[in-house]
């Protein structure tokens, strides 16, 4: 039995290591922040939209799909790193969060009425909701296109250009 277990471990361990290296984990990626106060402060300082990923990292299958198909893909990471502040608000079932972080996450879930996972929010630098998304087929390119659409719709007109006058 021990030999069989050792053989099974020997066969599966390399593929697990390769998968971990190729997909990564958004929470440990340098681009993702887990502390809401830090994320909101950074969004304000940089005048960038805040993208919040409400996830159940250790139980939510659709959250895993969003992570694997979008969040760890180069296209998303390149866009997000240059244009957004990323915040992960996790609600794990197996892992216990530090009490202060758990309270902050609970307050955000209540404030933004998050009842399902994944819930993906795009906020402007002042905390106003620009859009609410969930799992989206099409991968990182489709997702980034939607983020660009949401941020463009909320962007003010360039200075020196007056808004169009209302018809009389």
From TrEMBL:
<keyword id="KW-0732">Signal</keyword>
<dbReference type="Pfam" id="PF13098">
    <property type="entry name" value="Thioredoxin_2"/>
</dbReference>
<dbReference type="InterPro" id="IPR051099">
    <property type="entry name" value="AGR/TXD"/>
</dbReference>
<dbReference type="InterPro" id="IPR013766">
    <property type="entry name" value="Thioredoxin_domain"/>
</dbReference>
<dbReference type="InterPro" id="IPR036249">
    <property type="entry name" value="Thioredoxin-like_sf"/>
</dbReference>
<protein>
    <recommendedName>
        <fullName>Thioredoxin domain-containing protein</fullName>
    </recommendedName>
</protein>
<feature type="signal peptide">
    <location>
        <begin position="1"/>
        <end position="20"/>
    </location>
</feature>
<dbReference type="InterPro" id="IPR012336">
    <property type="entry name" value="Thioredoxin-like_fold"/>
</dbReference>
<feature type="domain" description="Thioredoxin">
    <location>
        <begin position="7"/>
        <end position="156"/>
    </location>
</feature>
